Amino acid sequence: MKTSFVSDLSTEQAITTFFLVHEKEIRNTRDGKPYLRLELGDRSGTIEARMWDQFEAAAKDVSRDDFVKVEARVQIYRDKPQLSLQKVRRAKPEEVDLADFLPHTKEDVGKLWAQLLEYANSIQNPWLKKLVLAVLADPAIAVRFKRAPAAKVMHHAYLGGLLEHVVGLCGLAKQIAAHYRELDADLLMTVAILHDIGKLEELCYDRAIGYTTEGQLLGHIIMELETVSKAMDAIEGFPPHLKAVVQHLLISHHGQYEFGSPKLPMIREALVFHYLDDMDSKMAAVRAALGAETGEDEWSAYSAALGRKFLKLDAFLKSGGPAANESK
Amino acid sequence: MKTSFVSDLSTEQAITTFFLVHEKEIRNTRDGKPYLRLELGDRSGTIEARMWDQFEAAAKDVSRDDFVKVEARVQIYRDKPQLSLQKVRRAKPEEVDLADFLPHTKEDVGKLWAQLLEYANSIQNPWLKKLVLAVLADPAIAVRFKRAPAAKVMHHAYLGGLLEHVVGLCGLAKQIAAHYRELDADLLMTVAILHDIGKLEELCYDRAIGYTTEGQLLGHIIMELETVSKAMDAIEGFPPHLKAVVQHLLISHHGQYEFGSPKLPMIREALVFHYLDDMDSKMAAVRAALGAETGEDEWSAYSAALGRKFLKLDAFLKSGGPAANESK
Amino acid sequence: MKTSFVSDLSTEQAITTFFLVHEKEIRNTRDGKPYLRLELGDRSGTIEARMWDQFEAAAKDVSRDDFVKVEARVQIYRDKPQLSLQKVRRAKPEEVDLADFLPHTKEDVGKLWAQLLEYANSIQNPWLKKLVLAVLADPAIAVRFKRAPAAKVMHHAYLGGLLEHVVGLCGLAKQIAAHYRELDADLLMTVAILHDIGKLEELCYDRAIGYTTEGQLLGHIIMELETVSKAMDAIEGFPPHLKAVVQHLLISHHGQYEFGSPKLPMIREALVFHYLDDMDSKMAAVRAALGAETGEDEWSAYSAALGRKFLKLDAFLKSGGPAANESK
Amino acid sequence: MKTSFVSDLSTEQAITTFFLVHEKEIRNTRDGKPYLRLELGDRSGTIEARMWDQFEAAAKDVSRDDFVKVEARVQIYRDKPQLSLQKVRRAKPEEVDLADFLPHTKEDVGKLWAQLLEYANSIQNPWLKKLVLAVLADPAIAVRFKRAPAAKVMHHAYLGGLLEHVVGLCGLAKQIAAHYRELDADLLMTVAILHDIGKLEELCYDRAIGYTTEGQLLGHIIMELETVSKAMDAIEGFPPHLKAVVQHLLISHHGQYEFGSPKLPMIREALVFHYLDDMDSKMAAVRAALGAETGEDEWSAYSAALGRKFLKLDAFLKSGGPAANESK
Amino acid sequence: MKTSFVSDLSTEQAITTFFLVHEKEIRNTRDGKPYLRLELGDRSGTIEARMWDQFEAAAKDVSRDDFVKVEARVQIYRDKPQLSLQKVRRAKPEEVDLADFLPHTKEDVGKLWAQLLEYANSIQNPWLKKLVLAVLADPAIAVRFKRAPAAKVMHHAYLGGLLEHVVGLCGLAKQIAAHYRELDADLLMTVAILHDIGKLEELCYDRAIGYTTEGQLLGHIIMELETVSKAMDAIEGFPPHLKAVVQHLLISHHGQYEFGSPKLPMIREALVFHYLDDMDSKMAAVRAALGAETGEDEWSAYSAALGRKFLKLDAFLKSGGPAANESK
Amino acid sequence: MKTSFVSDLSTEQAITTFFLVHEKEIRNTRDGKPYLRLELGDRSGTIEARMWDQFEAAAKDVSRDDFVKVEARVQIYRDKPQLSLQKVRRAKPEEVDLADFLPHTKEDVGKLWAQLLEYANSIQNPWLKKLVLAVLADPAIAVRFKRAPAAKVMHHAYLGGLLEHVVGLCGLAKQIAAHYRELDADLLMTVAILHDIGKLEELCYDRAIGYTTEGQLLGHIIMELETVSKAMDAIEGFPPHLKAVVQHLLISHHGQYEFGSPKLPMIREALVFHYLDDMDSKMAAVRAALGAETGEDEWSAYSAALGRKFLKLDAFLKSGGPAANESK
Fold first, then answer.
1. Nearest Cα to F145, choosing from F117, F121, F171?
2. E251: nearest Cα among E232, D320, E259, F247
3. I need a surface site. Which of A295, B141, C97, C220 has the fewest CB within 10 A?
4. How far is Cα D63 from Cα D66, in angstroms, rounded to an integer?
């Protein structure tokens, strides 16, 4: 069990805990003495570590991307904390809980998954219902869907983030379909559930969130298009025009060419879904920006994902004097 | 009372009814005989009209933008219907119902207005509630709000269209504020109600929908900024920071510089409202494109407002064979 | 057999020949007499036609998109030629040669197809060779490949144009792979052969060149991606990484997001192929612009596909005086 | 009185002078000894400072944004100068001259102000003259106008810079109105004087130049629009169309949407003023770039405000040999 | 001498006057009778003309781009005036005044030229003065400079327009160099005089304003670069660095790549000159837009050159009521 | 002769070799002791060097941009190698081989030059052949052509790189002219040979690759335009229209305004050449990116010149399992 996290270390503290090895190197001091240098991390951050004596066995035992157990002391070097290592060994799989090494959603994944299945079962159109349930019934998909983040950086960038994003969109889709009666609620729900399942393979998130090589070559839109198309082909009698509609909904959901959609939304449901998806992603990005500890008194730090900073509304209203207290 | 509309005229029909004069001219035939040429219109379209004999009195009596009563016969000239006028005189104000000359919403304006007031009264923040009610209580605003279109061409381009758009947005705002708990529901409702009231003066819509000169010089964002700022100044003790927030919500609601917003949304509620407003406008534009009689079997005509055509989903699904019948 | 073409008709000529019906309408003359109005066409252009007497049977017999046999006289109306019809009847399928109604390549399609197969057989990599030959062996594909145009307007917009374009690209691919030794000649040849086969379904070209509804919703990149992916899946043991590479080559071949490529070329062969494809398309567009009869003495007409006019080089050099004769 | 400036410090110098505290921190040395770290600055730059002993009282006494009096010695650490502090205390307001901490114009502010009033008094149109004089007569505005910079970074980024910029523009406006007789000289002068007064509140410049929160939410165009509109409303009988014209001149003066103008210039005077304002800003930015000590022999450093470097013309002409001496 | 102009013709008027032949054609009437159709024009517009009888000799005698003398009667056909020709013959050169066929400046060309020489002589730098005077002394240049328009459509699109534009810029250059003391007045004057002399060859303006083939291939920037470079090479000892500076001023004066400048202004004088040139061109375009007879009561017609309409300021201010009278 | 290169130095190695001085400075240690600090470099990289004792004579003797001979020992300081200098003196010209200090092509420059002349002699058109041979016969051009790089950073950024690029393009031009029979092979060859000769003066590459001041003011397109135009003027009877064509080919070869072409390609050969030049430059940039030692397992490092990373195709195919071995 992991007991200390990078963000909590204090000077001169002695620790015994687990980390992921991000970098490993043998270096020389100025006077030529070799030492082992590691960059270690967990879900809260990364830290430099050095082992000065008897590091040869450790250096052989551990590699980049290994989980390790260390005994060390926290020191300050050039104004930054650093670990001085006494012992390092590779961790056994059963000693490590991956959740300690990657940030994850604060929601209950089991409940989210149950909600998703409920939304899937609420679809009336038999073809679409069959399609969505078939995709979600694939065990490989289900396992990954409960873990995948929604992005590396932009929004919902934590384990379970994709599921949180998708369930949120299902809720929005249901409300909006009720608001605009001309919309086909089933199509909207279908695309809400399936629109990002390509991310299960586009991203890798075993030890850190990144992109797979195939993910970079193809992108999640193309990847999920293949998965969903095969699922439709596997349903006997699936109407070909409905297949083309579903395919269009998937490939157009980024809304613009420059975001990788090879077609603009040309179906009403595709247009609406693009708005909902974009809004929910941006709302999550704002939430992350305002929740971060950086930034100024009344402003978040600049968010590259959003191209601007956001106002800390409560702080600004309060700083305006007592009368403003009533404003919320 | 208007009995015949341009779109319903049939060849050789004799009519006695009212029109708006769009153009007026004296012309000569090829052999030099003068005649009166008018372009007449109502909410359903326009038609050419010619008066060959004894037109001098009529020509003096009527001007462009007058309503006129005519007796005429429908003829075909170069494959287009044309009116051959027997009598023309200026109409009395009490003879004319403006609604016959401008397209208008199919919704009940009285009900829409009641809904709007209900939304306004649901605001909890006392300052914002006072503000919104004060603006709506201005009789000049109320009268125009019940008539104004939301645009000349782009969306809700008919009398009452603005109110329809605003009430729709209030409904969306309420739902979305419930979905994202971090949003300030009162701010969202306030901007939904006030964001387009500058259009009451930016557009003119007495006889046809167009732009006023001031509207072209300033735009509705700047115009409503002045109106709403004065209303806030008139409320004693209105918190100055809250005033800046409301002003920011108004000026940023177009979401991008190139659409005339001098600031990008930098408050969460501003960002969300921009998505809702944009989506509702586009949905109305799609509705208009798909509702029009032009277009192909499976496609709407190209919509300049949307930069594309839209699929007639039902037609396309039906053309795919019997199995597709179940898809809706 | 078709004997007269629209572009060759001369005043007062009497003709008996076949046309395609583009539009059909019953209209009234100014004095109320009904007549039949058709717009007729062949591969050289379109012409208005009117039938004044005893047209009822003909009007029942023929519809839009029918081929018809007509007897008529050429007249001038408002400075444009027009047909005055004496007889009209639907043509029998065996009377009509489609090639008379759509422009087609001047090359020999059989020879082009043989060249294509030769290029396909020259591929060394066994997986890619199997893939390409399997796709070309599909009879549905082969039949359409010999007929399809490469585009509606932009380039090679005539029957057989796609095959002409593809065979040209195979030749370029071979030369360029020899020039840059670091390129994988087989990958380049594979993408040259397969990169546009989605156009077989994106376009319709039975009677006129246009887009299918599915073509508009998905585009040829997405359509051929599905075809080629299935073909790879059908080859037992096809290496999955090679599959991802082929998929990337297909989806990136437009080179830029705004032209519908969801990924930029990130493989050397993808980058080079994009240049070749773009250059060959533009060269064909220039050829069409300079070959057209419009334009000025030393300039082609403005080409929308190219965004400019092109110089008639020979004419310009010759107009410079006798010394310039030697320049070519 | 401030005696030493950051840019003039030399190694081992002992100083007693005033600074502004930019940052304050307690840190630990590698062996755990705490010390006080400050970042101190004046109008010429910033410098690191450390206090190793008996710093507890000082650390309590001073905060970020305080002015402090220090006794210190200049040392070199990692090739950069650093202060070793002996004494630090908060400065009394009367000890500090703000001008030592912010760069300011080299012009005489009193003379500039007198020139501005002269320009204002030269306006012929009685409404515009009344408007401009009323705004300038507001004591809050006058005080700030004599101090405000024109920008944080881009141009005239120093105290008094705004006044310098505005008076320069008044001079240009007068000349250009004489050159183009069709221009209304009074409108041009009015917008020259009023076009940036929103910057008095958009920027803060008490201790360093930055943006206020309201400034970021609204921008100076919107802020001055409210100030000037109120001033017009306060003049009885101010012609409403003239008001709309003045408002248009203010909101369009950035010339393009992407620079925050919600309307493009649609009045001749608005177009011309945009050119003058843009040119004067860019000229000031070039002056700053060429005046800076960075850059190469014949080139200024790259200017982000201008998107390029500028040639040092004299240096380049001189390096071309003796004949070039005559070129200036 | 030309007595009647197209814009002044009235129905049934008999005229004997000169025109330029824009188009010439032999056509057939509906019943097969051939006739001669000409499109004739002068500086005020164009008109259709038909000759029904004995036109064979005329048809042989005249060609496109000839000046002709005609006897004709004005008739109305399809609501547009048309000439019915009785006689047509080619005009003798001495009968025609080109100024009747192309619009020209209202300024006195002789005076403008004298002013230009005065500006040239005011240059202090001996190299630049020698350069400018040498260019203007070339008789081929002087003759064309007094005739050339500044553009085909965008601004100063009339004979003498270039000279008017250049002399205006010299005046501006002088004032601005006095305003910004850091500017080299001689460089600014030099580029003002020489910056558009490539237009003497880029445009053709013998009978109508258009582009030469070389003009389209190279553009005036490249053309004047060659002319001015040769003139500098011809001055013994011309400093090479000064030559590079002059060349840079010429090639950068459009200010942006997309307007055909291969380099952005990187010299202060180049930047300022770009502003002046752009402003003067746009002012002329606004002048033309407001001076045209098209447009609405308070607005000019939409100007493609400016991308917008412009306000008729006086009309708008007057429509605001009596108090507004004082505003000018 | 240079014996050690920066990239090969190992700790504690004692070296005696030559370097280029990039920077020179006298600094003080923390305790006030002065020392000489140099930044030294060769074609493989740069390294810091310090001389602690008796450096005064050396400091006087050597300057920035000098070649020096040093005796030194390699040490590690802050994890980076550094030279501790024992002796430093200026090198004699004959001791230094410039090729040790700038990267250069791996091809044989003599052979490349011979190939270039062969291509030049293959031109059939007598005017173009005369032109190309005249330019290449200029000894100043020939000497520089054999040395110049093709760019500072983007592609072929090494000595001889320009010649390598040009000869490669000549080969492509020959093949493409054979492929597209409508192309004028001589024009294509002419522009291939001449299109970048302005780079001989735009770049400086005596000690490091950079831009000349004239190069920055004018760019190579404008510079070569002057050179080639003069060469054409020097050939008696050179046809003026052919001159304009050659000039157009030169100025349009960047293909787009934003890359510094003042005209878009409007001649077929210009369009094709732009594609070839762009493709060859990008291929060289990809080659450099994939050849560099940076990057990940399956990806090159991000290339700023290309705006993306590129796949290491072989590595990716191999990582896909044994079956993939056959793919190449």
1. F117
2. E259
3. C97
4. 6
Q: How confident is the model at residue F240 (pLDDT cuts 50, 70, 90)?
A: very high
**Quick check: F55 and F89 in contact, CB under 8 A?**
no
Encoded tokens for C119? 């290029």
3-state helix, strand, coil in chain E (%, to 5): 45, 20, 35
Which DSSP string do the residues of B212-257 spell out, in sequence order?
A: -HHHHHHHHHHHHHHHHHHHHHTSTT--HHHHHHHHHHHHTTT-SG
Distance of CA F206 to the CA centre of its chain: 11
For residue C325, is pLDDT > 50? Answer: no
Which pair of tokens denotes residue C286? 């220039």
- Determine contact: F32 vs chain D, CB below 8 A: yes
Query: B26: distance to nearest CA of chain E, Å?
Result: 11
pLDDT in tens, B274-328: 999 999 999 999 998 998 766 677 999 888 889 999 999 999 999 886 554 454 4
Would you call C145 exposed, middle or buried from its count of C-beta atoms within 10 A (0-12, 13-18, 19+)? buried
- For residues F161 and F138, is the Cβ–Cβ distance under 8 A? no
How far lies B8's CA from each of A22, B42, B67, B68, B99, in Å?
77, 11, 19, 19, 17
Work out the angle between the directed axes of helices D126-137 and D109-121 (0-180°, nearest 10).
150
C55-59, F240-244, F259-263: least confident range: C55-59
Dihedral sign from CA coordinates of A156, A160, A162, A164: negative
Q: Do F30 and D316 touch (CB under 8 A)?
A: no
CB contact under 8 A, C251 and A216: no
**Chain C: closest CA distance from residue F242 (Å):** 6
Distance from CA of A157 to the nearest CA of F (A): 22
Number of Cβ within 10 Å of residue E22's Cβ equals 15
Q: What is the pLDDT of residues A132-147, one digit of tens each?
A: 999 999 999 999 999 9
Contacts of E263 in chain F (CB under 8 A): 217-219, 222, 260
* DSSP-derived 3-state class of residue C238: coil
Alpha-carbon distance values, A155 to A198, B76, B268 (Å): 16, 63, 15
Does C323 touch chain F if contact means CB atoms closer than 8 Å? yes
Rounded Cα distance between F25 and D81, Å, is: 16
| Alpha carbon distance B260, D258 (integer Å) | 9
Cα–Cα distance, E310 to E295 (Å, whole number): 10
How many other C-beta atoms can be found within 10 angstroms of the C-beta atom of residue A237?
A: 8
Q: For residues A150 and A160, give the distance between their C-alpha atoms in angstroms, rounded to a whole number.
A: 8
- How far is it, in rounded angstroms, from Cα F181 to Cα F188? 12
Q: Is the full-model pTM beyond 0.95?
A: no
Cβ atoms of C37 and C60 closer than 8 Å: no
Per residue in B88-105, pLDDT tens? 999 988 888 877 888 889
* Range in B247-256, C270-279, D152-161 with the lowest mean pLDDT: D152-161
Q: Say how far apart CA B144 and CA B224 lie, in whole Å.
A: 14
DSSP state of F104: B
Amino acid at F66: D
Interatomic CA distance for residues C318 and C326, integer angstroms? 9
CA–CA separation, F248 and E170 (whole Å): 31
CB contact under 8 A, F324 and C239: yes
Q: Cβ–Cβ of D30/A76 closer than 8 Å?
A: yes
* Per-residue pLDDT band at E41 (split at 50, 70, 90): confident
Low-confidence ranges of chain A (pLDDT < 50): 324-325, 327-328
For E78-181, list the strands marked E by DSSP. Answer: 80-90
Distances (CA, A) of C101 to B55, C45, C144, C211: 53, 9, 17, 17
Give me the helix-helix angle, E240-251 and E185-194, nearest 10°.
60
